[in-house]
TrEMBL record:
Record's protein name: STAS domain-containing protein
PROSITE patterns: STAS
Pfam families: STAS_2
STAS domain span: 1-105
Length: 105
């Protein structure tokens, strides 16, 4: 399993360049690999950042790899949940935590 740290900024101003960089990192991994994108350091983001993460997931799947986002900052996780994409990007453990948090509200 490989972990790649996401940059502090994931928004429209950097999405294209970050997508290219993340796809290169994914391409360097062998088929069948699992890659975790560590979002702990993400400070600025918008919906383009979520689109970037989804594009990375599609790229990984197209090349026989699995991708999950881990260590979600609370606001980014909340945005992903509002857009309905959290379950596509999270690990099974993260999904159960998010479901429990949503049920508690």
């Amino acid at each position: 399993m490989t972990t790649v740290d996401l940059p502090p900024q994931l928004d429209a101003s950097v999405a294209k360049a970050q997508l290219a960089a993340l796809c290169r990192a994914l391409d360097a991994l062998p088929r069948g690999s699992v890659c975790r994108l560590n979002a702990a350091g993400v400070q600025r983001f918008d919906s383009a950042g979520l689109a970037l993460l989804l594009a990375c997931r599609r790229h990984a799947q197209a090349h026989g790899k699995t991708l999950h986002v881990v260590q979600w900052p609370a606001k980014l996780q909340s945005l992903a949940q509002v857009y309905g994409v959290l379950e596509w990007l999270s690990t099974p453990q993260d999904k159960s935590v998010a479901h429990a948090a949503a049920s508690a509200v």
